[in-house]
Amino acid sequence: MADPKYMKNIADIFEENDQALLSAWSDLLKTSGAGSVGAGARIKDAELQTQCRSFIGALKRALASDQATDIAGAGYQDVRDLLGEISHARAIQGFSPTETASFVFSLKEPIFDLLRKAYAQDGLALAEATATVSDLLDQLGLFTTEVYQRSREEVIVRQQQEISELSTPVVELWEGILALPLIGTLDSSRTQVVMENLLQALVDREAEIAIIDITGVPTVDTLVAQHLLKTIAAARLMGADCIVSGIRPQIAQTMVHLGVELSVVSKASLADAFALALQRTDRVVVKTRSLVKA
Amino acid sequence: MDRVPILKLGNALLVTIQVDMHDRLATALEEDLSAKIVSSRAKGVVIDISGLDIVDSFMGRMLDNIAAVSRMLDAETVVVGMRPAVAITLVELGLELNGIRTALDLERGMKMIQARLEEGRDRDETLADVE
After folding, report:
1. What is the pLDDT at residue A1?
2. CB-based contact B80 A239, cutoff 8 Å
3. How far is A208 from chain B (nearest CA, A)?
4. Confidence band (pLDDT; 50, 70, 90) for A186?
């Protein structure tokens, strides 16, 4: 267990050997690759130096404070903030967890060297102080890993949201005609987003016809078909007609084999569906040349 | 007790639901509406539910009932202005209201009724020609 008695001493030792510690540590970081200054060069040398210097500074202040043994306490606020910032940045830059945690763990060796020199006369004190520092740095290392993991999870959640929003655009093909090109697998949560987007777009653009294009949906099983039917039923309740297009031959076969029946108007291609939509809204597409002849 | 007003507009009746519907109000509406269809000889009913943001299965069934009763009295029901959230709720409740015609807004709903009336008139005229 961390012994408060040594904290003050260790803080003093830090203070005396500030520069030596800093250079030893940053050299070690550079050679070990934890800073990845060399080949990957994801962090600039100067930036790494700044991080090291401010971390040692914050650690010194924390050790000198009253609650030097409690890394969750107020004394370590600066250290925690700084570490959080560093590991958050590294998580986003694509460092591995080992590389991120090594930032803290690699500080052990230079400190132990210092301690060995300082307590050269007193073996017991050396052992105690070493254990104290080791314990402290272990906790900080774990904290780093936790922040790292949290940051990665944030990234994943954000990406999930982005994907689900990206993949459900509602486009206006013509006045009163909307198209909803679906891409990717349809699950319950995505269908919900799709449904809400489509219905809102129907209101916003005052559209009467919506074309749901499933060219980009790799598989249609009973569940997906049910989701589609629900969306179509909801659109109908709002007074809009739906046309399903882009059912691929294999999918049509699978659906028939599964006994799934889409009891809605369906067309093989988006073009056909669009032509039908135009026809229903009393419009027609003609070639300009035939117009001239007429 | 509150009643939902029913307005006559040409050959159609217009019902605008502006307040939260509770069950008794809905049953009262059904009674009033069927009486009014008969007394005014209306051929169409437009129910505007754009002000409605909460529905339950009872309300859904009520709409279905109203449509069925009106059809029996030779008036077509068009429900207009349903909000997205309401549509999703009804579908999730399994009430797809297949017996009801729907339109995006009041204007289109009225047009739908007019179209039906004109169709009927054309047919009547052809019948008259035959005679």
Report:
1. 45
2. yes
3. 7
4. confident
Residue A191: list chain B partners with CB under 8 A: none
| Among candidate residues A233, A242, A181, the one with its CA nearest the CA of residue A209 | A242
Q: Which of A81, A77, A136, A65 is nearest to A105 (CA)?
A: A136
Burial class (CB in 10 A: 0-12, 13-18, 19+), B108: middle
User: Does residue A82 have a pLDDT over 50?
Assistant: yes
- Judged by average pLDDT, the poorest of A98-102, A164-168, A278-282 is A164-168
The rounded distance, in Å, linking the Cα atoms of B47 and B30 is 12
Cβ count near A162 (within 10 Å): 10
The model's confidence at residue A294, banded by pLDDT at 50, 70 and 90, is low
- Residue B45: pLDDT over 90: yes
Domains of chain B: 6-130 (3.30.750.24)
Chain A CB contacts of B86 under 8 Å are: 237
Is B53 at the interface with chain A, CB within 8 A? no
Quote the CA–CA distance of A225 and A211 in Å, as a whole number: 15
- Taking the alpha carbons at both ends of chain A, their separation in whole angstroms is 97
B7: left (phi over 0), alpha (psi -120 to 50) or beta: beta
Question: What domains can be seen in chain A, in order of their start residue?
Answer: 4-162 (1.10.490), 171-293 (3.30.750.24)
Q: Residue A91 has which token pair?
A: 């998580």
Strands, E, within chain A: which ranges?
Answer: 171-174, 177-183, 209-216, 241-245, 266-267
B87–A208 CB contact, under 8 Å: no
Q: What is the pLDDT of residues A96-128, one digit of tens each?
A: 888 888 888 888 888 888 888 888 888 888 888
Statement: residue A35 has pLDDT above 60 = no
- Choose among A136, A132, A37, A52: nearest CA to A93: A37
Confidence of residue A37 (pLDDT cuts 50, 70, 90): very low
Residues A267, A203: Cα–Cα separation, whole Å = 24
CB-nearest to A238 from B82, B92, B96 is B82
| Run of H or E including A32 | helix A18-32
